[in-house]
Each structure stands twice: as C-alpha cells, then as structure tokens.
Batch of 4 targets.
Target 1
Amino acid sequence: MNFRIRIDESICIGAGRCVDLAPELFDQRENDGIVVLLQAEPDQALYDKAVRAAAQCPARVIVIESPKP
C-alpha cells in the first residue's frame, strides 16, 4: 500500500524547497508560489523524496502519512 501526502496551503510561505527536491510530487502556483500537491498517494518509490521534501520545508507544510500495517 502506498503512503499518503497532505499539505496545508494556509501556512505555505512559497520557499519552493519541495519542488526542488521532489518535482514529481509538488509544484507551485504561478501567482503566489504556494505549494500544489501533484500526487496525494504516490508510488512507494517516491517515499524518500517526499520525506526529504517534508523535512526541508521551512513552514512544515507537508505531512507524510505511512500506511497502517
């Protein structure tokens, strides 16, 4: 089972680290730079990239939810 990603747009500051680290998962809105989630339930192969992006987000916008065993 795949993991899940949640974001909280309301606290995003538009730093863009997530896009730099995981462009398959995140983008930014053109008008204000706020994060856009491209895949809420991505393939497991992208897990490390998602975790790295979440850890590097200065506003802690990204939440990674692992599947329940």
Target 2
Amino acid sequence: MNYITPELAKKILNSKGEIYLNLDLNKTNKKFKVIVNEDKAIFPSGEIEIKILKKIAKDNAVYLLDNNRLYKLAIADESGYYKLVPTIPPTIEINGIRMHRTKGINPYEDTLNKVNSINIKKGDVVLDTCMGLGYTAIEAYRRGAKVITIEK
C-alpha cells in the first residue's frame, strides 16, 4: 500500500526517471522508489497515469494505491462527508471541519497541547467522545491513563 498526497504528486510530476519518497504518511522514515516516465509513475503498489497524478496534485485529499487500484480516502453518506486530509500526521475532515488544528501546527502537536493542558497522568480516567483517528486517546493511554471511548 502506498499513500499519495498532493505534495507527493507534485514532487513526482517535477521529477524525471526515478525519485525516492516516503509513501506511508511518514509512519516510518523509509523511502520507496518511484519510476517516472512520460505517461505514468510506477510505485511499489502499482502504477498511476501522469494525467491522474495531475488531478491528485490539485486535490486536498489522500489517495491509497494498493494492488494497482487507486482509492480516494473519503466517504460520503447521509450523515456527511468524511475525508483524510494530507497533513503529517493526517487528520480527518468532517463536512469541511478539521478535527485538529492544522494552521501553524500539525495534528500531533495539537494533540500534545490538549493533553498537556489538562495534565493527564498515570491513573487518570479519560473519556474520549469523538475518537477520529485516536491521537488524543493514544497519547492519554501512553501517559498511563485509563481511556474510555464512545463513538457514534
């Protein structure tokens, strides 16, 4: 599985031959080889046509390439529109509202600010009522809190 963001698509479009990029949303420091030619880019998980990469470069969303199939990481249903936003680490956007602050700060730093502001420590009990990607619950757990989650 390879994750493609607009930033990565732009880097690929501006490269020739091959380029090494992180394709796992920076979960690791690993770099993967992407071979670029006139009409397509070849990733470890498949190929994407250059014309599709140009569209991804203009779309503020995250795409998943898996077994040569490309998916936009977004869902629309009667309750709303949910998409993964290409911040690092990513955040969720629900009906146009981001679940973490992203202006001048990344979602992980936002999480640390929240957890630090209430001084979560070992033995605390934390109620998380809107889990999203779980960053706040995970950080509270790392600090020794018991975390209770409720998700609609």
Target 3
Amino acid sequence: MELSRRLFFKSTAAGGLALYVYGANGMPEAVGAEIPGGSLPATNIRQFVNRLTVPQILPRKGTRSTPYGTADYYEISMKQTTQQMLPTGMPKTTVWAYGPTGGSDSAFTSPGLSISALQNRPVQIKWTNELVDRYGRYLPHLFAVDRSLHWANVPQEPGHEGLVSTDIKPTLEGRRYVTPDKYTDPETQYTDYTGPVPIVTHLHGALAVKDHSDGYSEAWYLPRANNIPAGHAKYGRWWDFLKEKHRRETGVDWGEGHQTVTYPNTNRATSLWFHDHALGLTRLTVYAGAASFYLMRGLEYEVLDSRTRRTARAPAGPSNVYGQNSPNPGADLALAIQDRSFNNDGSLFYPSSRSFFDGYQGPFYPEEPGIPPNWVPEFFGNTMVVNGQTWPYQRVERRRYRMRFLNACGSRTLYLDFRGIPGVEVWQVANDGGYLDEKVNIMQLEGWRRGRVILAPAERNELLVDFTNVRTGRYTLRNVGPDAFFPGGRPAENGEEPRVKLYPFEERDVVFPPADPNTTGKVMAFDVVPYWGVDTSTPGRYLKMKPQPKLPAPVRTRRLATTMSFHNVNEDPAPYASHTMLGVLHGEPGGKMHIQDTMWSDPVTENPQPGDVEDWEIYNLVQDAPVPHPIHIHETAFEILERRMIWYNWDTGVMEMGPETPLLPGETGRKDTVFVYPGEMIRLRMRFTTPGQYMWHCHLLEHEDNEMMRPFRVGPEQPGQPGDLPSHDMPHAH
C-alpha cells in the first residue's frame, strides 16, 4: 500500500512539527528543524539547574468501613495553582494539580502527592473539583476546548436528530467555526468552549474496581461554582446511575462538585497512576497537570534472592510522608516523564488550532469535510519534564536504586538510553502489571536495544539501577525516541538514513530519526557521588522472579482493529485525518475480513461475562498514517501471547498473515497497556471479573479524545443504566 507523501508532509513539516516526511514509497525525504512550541524556545531553557523533586506520600485522612473491609480514607481535590517547572529565576507555571482537600497551596503540585496503598487493603477517596477562583467562580480551561468533538458537551448543544444531552457530538448545525477574537454571532458561529470544566478521575491499572469507581468518562462533574451558566449540565450522563450504585453498595453518597470512590486494591505490588478521564477532555486536563502516582505495596517482595532463597531486599529509604518528614525519597524514586512546551511568561503552550499540526486552515466541522478546528492528531512538546521540572538533576550515591518510570506524555514514545553512563547496571524487574516472570538485563540486550528501555504513553517500568561501579560525576539519561509521528522501529544511528518499509514481510524495516540531542534527547542528569554506607539491597544478578500462573484457554477470541478516518479536501490528493477509531473485524485471518468501524456512541460490541477468559486479537491496520497505538483495557490485566506481522489489502479486503515476531523485553507477566505496532496483530489473554460498564482505548490522548475509545460491559446490562445514544452523523463503516 502506498503511503501518502503529502499526509506526512502536512502532519510533520508544514506545521513545523517534525523532523521527517515520507514519500509514496514510505521513505523519509526530509529532515526539519527544532520542534516548535510556544513563544519560549526550548534552547533558551537552562538544563540540569533544579534538583529533582520526588512526590512525597500523601497522609491518609482516616479510615472508613467499606464492603471490602476497613479502608484508608483520603480527600483529594483538583485545583489551579502555580509551580516552578522552569529553572529558578524564570517565571512560574500555572497548572492544575491534585492535592489534599483543604491543604495549603504548596501541597498541590503536578504530579501530585503519591498514594501509598497496601495490597488487599482498600482505599476510599473523595475527589473534589475545585476549579474555581477565590470568589467561587468557575475557571475556564487553560487550553482551547474543541466543542465539535464527541465530548462531555456541558452546554447540552443538540446532537444528531435534535437530541439534547450531555456526552454527545453536537451537530452545530448552521454555524461555522471562528476563533474567539472573531466570535460575534451565536446564531451563525461557534467558537472554543470557555465554560466550567468537568473532571472524573481514573486509577489507571486498578483491577476489580466497580464501574462506579473506575472514572467512567460520562460520570464527570463540574465544580461547585456560583456562576454555572443556565442550561449547563452539572453532571455527565452516567453520574446519577453510578452515584446511586455507589451509595447502595457502600453507603456513601456523591454531591455537587465531588465524588467518592472505593478501590479494593487487589493488584500485585506495582506502580499505578491516576489522571483525569472526562470525555473529550483527557488530553487537555492531563497536559494541564492532573496526574499522580498510586504506589501499590505488596504484602511481601515477590522476588527472591537466589543466594539465600529468601525474599530479596529492595532499595528503600525513609517514609517520606508529606507534613511528617523532610522530602527525601532515599533509594526509591518515582519518575513521571512528560513533554511540554512553554511561553515566555512561563505558561504552558498547547495548540489551539489544527493548523499548528498540518497547516489546514478550514473549513471545519460541521462544514465539509468535518475536520475539528482545535483538535490535533498528536502533539509533541519541545522540552522534557520529570516530576514537574524541566531537565532536573538528581544526586545519587554509588549504590542501587529502585526507579519507577512512568511515561505520562500524551503522544510521545520514550526510548530511555542508559548507554551514556559507563559502568551502570540496569535490570527491569516489573512493568505496569507488577513483577516480571523473568528479569531483563537491559545493558546486556542485543543490538540497538542494548541499554535502552521503551515506554509507550501510560506504560510504567520498574528498574533496578545500580551505580556501584559508576565513577563519580554527572551523567545524562537520554531519550532516543522520536520527536513526531513514528511508525515504530528503531532510532537511526551512525548517520544512517531513516526508512519505513512494512511490506513485503521479509523486507520489513523501520528506522526513525531520534529526538533532538540538544533538547528532547535529554531527560535528566544523575550526579553520582560516593556512598559511605552499606548497601543491603539484593544485586540484580541474584534476583529470582516468581512466574505468574498462566490463564486457562479462552472461552472466545475477539478480533478488533485500530483505524483512522481521512477526508480529501478540494483538489488535494492527500487525505486529512478527522478522527481515530477502534473496530471489530469479521471473517478469518488469511482471507477476506470486513471492518466494522465503531465510535464511542455505538452499542457495546465486547460483552464478556464475569469470570470469562478471552483472547483479544488487535490488528493495527496501516492506512495513510502508520502509527503504533498503546492500548489500555480497564478492569483487567492481560498476558501478551503473540505478536505477528499482518498486512490488510484495502482494495480486496484480504488480511494477509505474516511471521510471528518475538515479544519485547519486559513483556512477561501481566500488563494493562501495550503498543500495537503498524502492520501488526497482538494477541492478549485476560480474565474479566467485575460486572459493570468499562472502557478500552488508545492511550495516545489525542486519539482517545476523538473516538478511539470504546465502552465494554462485563455481564448483562444493568437495570436502570443509561441507554444507548444514537450514533452521530459521521459515516464510519468500511
């Protein structure tokens, strides 16, 4: 299949966004300049000036009785605040942050204070939306909200067939988009939404959570502001149903501006995180700062020391509880990596116009071809931020450290590179589902993978990083991942030319330009100093993992697909992306297969029963934009059974199956998020346990916010649950 040159030119170079473009044969043709962003150039920001801040542990407010037993109880709000993201001496940055309700401004940071939870001991949290000013008036979003998407639709603008509801795609009939400065006539025009902002928090990776506590995207709520405009809904479409279900099961009610949820904490020891998940707004609110760690502690360390056959010792440190200890994470570092762009006044920059991405100037939805005015298919910031600071440094001693890495970027894939730290040992011991079945010696991987760790958006990896044999001095942790749209593969090295060839299978070869070595190619610095104590933690080479029992054979196999919708504009032969989608495949691999594209509002197509084990085969069908999709499935964790090359012929409908490819390092055990690469099928096996309504989606947040998310239901339809909405008026079937 030909890849459109203009599509990739538009999506990378015309908007100034990227480093490479593709010709019709899939080969990159040009390399551009520095990644653009806000008015503050990334090269004007000093690096390794501020010391890394590791989020402290949020103390609990008390305990509560729940159906799962006595729970640790927290009250957490989201507020607007400022913090020093840029180096000291530069302006502070306005962010939206989680923090303890009623706490001081200093307690609200991005990422927020971490929750330390104990396996099988439940946690109950009262989440409060405090996005109001000091007078109690609502705050508008920090970034342009695209009201043409299928989103929360707080103003309840009419949708398909005149339906007045939240959580739909408004038709905006008879109106054309204009920028806010040109908005004069609400009868013939529409512009960015600037009203009160809905939120709902999702604990990413939590198992066996009831749907009332999962952060369902249509269970959002507004702040308790004193100036909510007339006609604006205060709650999402699923709020009332899930509110009553939680009250009935736990005895705890929800109210205006707040929601209480209960987590059973049945996960193994692992690093989870929580973030906002409101329909059509996730990319914006997470970019504004709404994300935090949730560290699940096991009842025992699930790894043995092969010398003693007893539980291994993990690197640790002081308790590091907010308000009780001076900030000191010791040897246990939680590291959230994000890419951001800034303006000269210190504010965060995020595109407000589609033209930033590909130069497209309109017409926009609802005029043909239906392209959203604000939404961009992907966004890459031009700075690297770790724990809310641009390019920090961390002082480390010549000993072992436990490092919990989270890729909290919206679109950027990280290829963390430890090669520039001579003498370091790096062992991957866990992923987002907990400890691996087999540890991975990162510095001994073969070929281009040596010393490198790949993290898709939302993935977490736990590494044992051993500085014992590293000479004192400053070392840079680098990133050799891409600075733009990329089709998977490996970074170019030693001056080789980037290339993309996905078919025929025997010639598959994908090489992309790595990140800018002067900016996004750097993550943080480690200042290695002597260690005068005794390191009692277990060295990586002596760690012995406990493999997880394999799931039984599935009761059914589902075949699903990732797709995108493109439109041709005027005489331009290359299509422009309008939205991304998930779909159902009908037919047998190796023969003709029909794609049933589905959108958020379509009826549920995945409906396992409680206790069912299912295999999901997810096919990434290559269209004009070969993009890997990080797939996240709520409520469960999965085993990765197979990766296989595929090629779908869009003219004949035949799905050609290629050879199986090895699983990636660190993909043993369980996971909750996984990359599906272009021209690839991945087979996942999982058990569904908890009845209710959940979601699965791509975790490229720009994709998730524009139709690449689907509801699924475990068990029968619940009495009284909201009914299906009519599918909106955009065609979505092949």
Target 4
Amino acid sequence: MDLDKTVELVTNLDRAAIEARLKQVAADAKARSLDDIPTLLGDFVGMSQDELRKRVALCLQALSESPEHKALFTQLELIELNLPNLG
C-alpha cells in the first residue's frame, strides 16, 4: 500500500468490495508484521454488519497510536464508513 497515496472517499461499496478491501488490509498488515489485525478481523467473509463493525473498530483502536500505520488506519476508516451498505 502506497503510504503517500490520497484516499478517495467512496461510500457506495457493496459487500464484495468491502470484503476485497478487508482482504487487502489483512495482507498489508501481515506484511508489516501486524499479525493482530488479521486475527482481529477473523474470517470476515459473510460476517454480519454488526460483527464487522465491532472487528473494524477493534482494528482501528489497535492502530490508533501508530502514525506509521496511517495508510492501514485510513483504509479501515473507509471500510467503516461503508458498513451501513451491508444493512
């Protein structure tokens, strides 16, 4: 993930797009030895909106004190904004 990239605010992601972004976040976190993020996300495919909201919030909390992981944090914020689309 490019750390200097500007994130486009997209609020119309469907389940497939949200899950694709979560998969990318998990892979990027693992590549940065942030194994707690994929663990917190768990097996998110098909997960309920409420459960995803809880897990994304836990990931955001885990990354909130780490400015060096701002790109991951921003992607999770974007995912969080799109979770209402699952309801």
